[in-house]
Amino acid sequence: MKTLTLAAIGGGVLSTILSFSFTAKADNHIFYGIQMEQFEYRSGDEGENLFVWDGDAFVGTDELKLRWQGEGERDLKNDLYENFENRLVLQTPISDFFDAKAGIRLDTPSTTDRWYGTVGIMGLAPQWFEVDADLFVSETGDGSARLDVEYEGLLTNRLILTPSLELNAAFSDDREIEVGRGFSSAEIGLRLSYDLIDRAVAPYIGVAYERKLGKTADFAKDDGEDYEATYLVTGLRLLF
Amino acid sequence: MRKLLGRALLGALSTIAVSTAGYAATYNLSVDYVTIDTGDMKTKAIGYNGSSPGPTLRLKEGEDAVINVTNNLDETTSIHWHGLILPYQMDGVPGISFTGIEPGETFTYRFPVKQSGTYWFHSHSGFQEPDGAYGSIVIEPEKREPFKFDREYVVVLKDKHPHSGARILRNLKMMPDYYNRNQRTLGDFISDVSENGLGETLSERGDWGSMRMMPTDIEDVQGFVGLINGKSPEQNWTGLFEPNERVRLRFINASAMTYFDVRIPGLEMTVVQADGNNVQPVKVDEFRISVAETYDVIVQPTAEKPYAIMAESMGRSGYAFGSLSPQEGLKAEMPARRMDAPLLTMADMGMDHGSMAGMDHSSMGSGNENGMAGMDHSNMAGMDHSQMGMSKDDPFYAAGSGLTPKAANGGKFLSYADLKAQKPLYPERPATREIELRLTGNMERYTWSINGVKYEDAEPIRLKYGERVRFKFVNETMMSHPMHLHGMWSILDTGNGKWDPVKHTININPGMTVYSETEVDEPGQWAFHCHLSYHMASGMFRKVVVEGGPAVAALENGVQ
């Protein structure tokens, strides 16, 4: 049901952007692209098996883009979605290197669903750090924030070492989804990829470490759940 | 109504005037889907009369050219006659000169041929030109030329890429360094640390990182195969000669994005023409040809052996190769490629105080010059990017630029400063006004513009018929831009007064300000743009409207 609503809203936003593009002059090209930063199998230190993805797609002009950002985590052992998140945002440049974006996010994991409104910025910070910083307000009125930072280290022009960091914080407790006020979770990763076909297909191996923090970690401990995990990852970076 | 009638009458009159001036010569071109086979890859492409490149169109000065162009594609097409002076409706730019040529339609171009020399033609629709829609034009002069030659060849250079033009631009929009495989890596970092120390290396990397620019960003689109007359290095285009013959080579750079450094090891080249206009002969060992430019050179091979035509791309990521040979099937030995890719410097960023440029200059001061001259070819190549800042540098590159070319044999490399018109085309007079065009862009977004405004958002540049306008090009980007004004000549200011060369394409290197003057002597509306295909498509483009002047004859098949 919620997926349907998301699709409907997506369609609405898409038609807005398309009509915008068509009313603009013919030379205002529409571009599109799809990218999977992470598309991987994770094998945990305690026998966990996960499939994880993190990607985005866009359609639009230099001035206005509709972007989908999605990430998810499927627990292959227990056949459930630990995390299933989709965002649709409209995005426009605000400086030479940064775009502002605003839109909606829907989380539909196997546990509790949540709607969010979101605003954020994404772009390229000095020294080539790719940054995505977002604020969210959920349907229950809880605020949260996320920072994603990534850096591509060129060992050679095809062999690329990518450290990444994701940091989540909440401004209030949302016990239903087991998030506590303060820094709630962090994930650091290190992936070594090789550009096999242009920039389109790049297989990688790497490690990822994720940990719940502060009160969120306490909630997990109270429930007798793991609050940290280390994974070996193998996957593909895709760009089309 | 009356006005319309008047126009029709004028049109009829001009047709008569034209037909008395010359005799009509008819040419036919079809625009076709073709396959380009470079030996290693076969790509679907667009060509003329069934092949890419298209034929060499041989026109005669003084004739009336009638060119029937039949569009066999399933999309709109157009042909622009690059460098030709003609009525604007015949210039072939959809949306400016005419509406384009629809699938199945035959459009007849008619124009009096009022010039001679080497030119080219290409589609001005979408990405058909990078996809193969280009050909050469040779216009035979009415009068005897001021140089002698025994035989001649057209040498068309092309950067043939396996990806279609549309895909290339989409990839660049997704990821501006999609095709840059010459980026600095960990290995470069380590070797820089061992050479310059950790502190200096970190601060240098920091300078580029804070600008979010790459010193390796010289060729946006790498991964191409360089073609000479449609032939890859492996396929070895060959021009035959008899020893001691004077051979005229008409070089045309029909590339989408790539500048080439051209040399023929063992032969001195005498440059006699640039962009179709004769220049005072200048002897060089090597020259750089910007996208869309032409240079005619004369060589005189004396030995009965094959000579290599070597055209390495400015960023050294690719090359074209062919042979001049005394007999068929004899391939020249390919000279060693210079694999050291140049690096941009802070001077190319327009920062004259830049720590890099300043430092290299002082450490590579005049004392090294003698030592440098004595070095052999391979060492020279290895020294290339540390040579920047040497005293006799080309004034058309920023002092300390990483792009400043050096001849492979240490000899003479052609500069714009060497180009002097053989015979001035226009009397010298001061410009009536100056128009500043800042060449601007954002590499990370892959947007390109003029004065910070993209084509779709820009007002046309309005010129007045009869004025002499001085264009001031200020390159604020880190890339070179070959700016092409349609329909009217660009007189490049090289400081030679009335001997300033007359061109159709003016290259402006990073960090540089270059002036050109145009006698506004053609009415109508024209295109003015960077000739790098993906810069042009991204917005580095303007419409030029010439106001006043004689009413433009509504030529047959022109604007109705």
Instruction: Flag low-confidence runs of chain B.
Output: 1-20, 353-391, 553-560
Spans of chain A with pLDDT under 50 lasting ≥5 residues?
A: 19-26
What string, H for helix and E for strand, traces the elements of chain A in order? HEEEEEEEEEEEEHE
**How many distinct domains of chain A?**
1
At CATH level 3, the topology of chain A is Porin
Number of strands of chain B: 30
- The name of the CATH superfamily of the largest domain in chain B reads Cupredoxins -  blue copper proteins
CATH architecture of the largest domain in chain B: Sandwich
CATH fold-level name of the largest domain in chain B? Immunoglobulin-like
Average pLDDT across residues of chain A?
90
Under the CATH scheme, which class of the largest domain in chain B? Answer: Mainly Beta
CATH architecture of chain A: Beta Barrel
State the name of the first-level CATH class of chain A. Mainly Beta
Tell me about the biggest sheet of chain B? 6 strands, mixed
The proportion of strand residues of chain B reads: 25-35%
Quaternary organization: heterodimer
- The radius of gyration computed from the alpha-carbon positions of chain A, rounded to a whole number of angstroms, is 18 Å
Enzyme class (chain B): oxidoreductase
GO molecular function (chain B): L-ascorbate oxidase activity
EC number (chain B): 1.10.3.3
Keywords (chain B): Copper, Metal-binding, Oxidoreductase, Signal
Word description of this protein:
Chain B: One of its GO terms (molecular function) is L-ascorbate oxidase activity. Chain B: This is L-ascorbate oxidase. Chain B: Keywords: Copper, Metal-binding, Oxidoreductase, Signal. Chain B: It comes from Thalassospira tepidiphila. Chain A is mostly beta strands and 240 residues long. Helix content of chain A is 13%, strand content 59%. Chain A has 2 helices and 13 strands. Chain B has 560 residues and is an alpha+beta fold. In chain B, the strands form 6 sheets. Chain B has a 6-stranded mixed sheet, with no helix packed on it. In chain B, strands 21-20-23-28-25-26 form a 6-stranded mixed sheet. Chain B has a 5-stranded mixed sheet with strand order 11-19-18-13-16, with no helix packed on it. Chain B has helices spanning 2-21, 165-174, 186-196, 198-211, 355-363, 367-373, 377-383, 533-538, and strands spanning 24-37, 42-48, 56-60, 64-71, 80-82, 106-112, 117-122, 134-140, 151-160, 225-228, 237-240, 247-253, 260-263, 269-274, 277-284, 286-289, 294-299, 307-313, 319-325, 433-442, 447-450, 461-464, 468-475, 481-485, 490-492, 502-503, 505-508, 513-519, 524-530, 541-547. The A-B interface holds A 24-29, 31-33, 35, 62, 93, 96-97, 124, 126-128, 153-158, 198-199, 239 and B 95, 169-171, 173-175, 178, 181-187, 206, 209-210, 212, 442, 444-445, 447, 454-456, 537, 539.
